[in-house]
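REVIEWER CHECKLIST
Item 1: Sequence provided? yes
Item 2: Single chain? yes
Item 3: Sequence as submitted:
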Amino acid sequence: NFRMCKGTFLELCELLSPALKRQDTRMRAALTVQKRMAIALWKLATPDSYRSVTNQFGVGKSTVGVDVMQVANAIVELLLSKVVTLGNVQVIIDGFAEMGFPNCGGAIDGTHIPVLGPDHQGSQYIHRK
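Item 4: Structure as written out by the authors:
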């Protein structure tokens, strides 16, 4: 249900632990990084409601909401620059041109990226969506 193997999950926890680790207080013990990651990934991977996730993990509804946002922010801050890179754009465009796709900078299956058609040569622009 987490959409990843255990090794990947643990590696992700280790990479994000500087941003997600919390200290215990006199009032309560802090949630572990693993539990916080599990809550966030479960919510992101399934169409469950916050109430359903709270019952699954034994935490409050507001905890789930805050946790999902903090994990998402930690991923953006710590991992986005390491994982999502475009690379040398000209090399990518040249590679697609060799395959018969001129002026193509990438291909993502199932994702619609709006592109404005050219003012001139509008008949050359095909936009099926």
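Item 5: Key structural point noted by reviewer: The chain has five helices and no strands.
Item 6: Recommendation: ____
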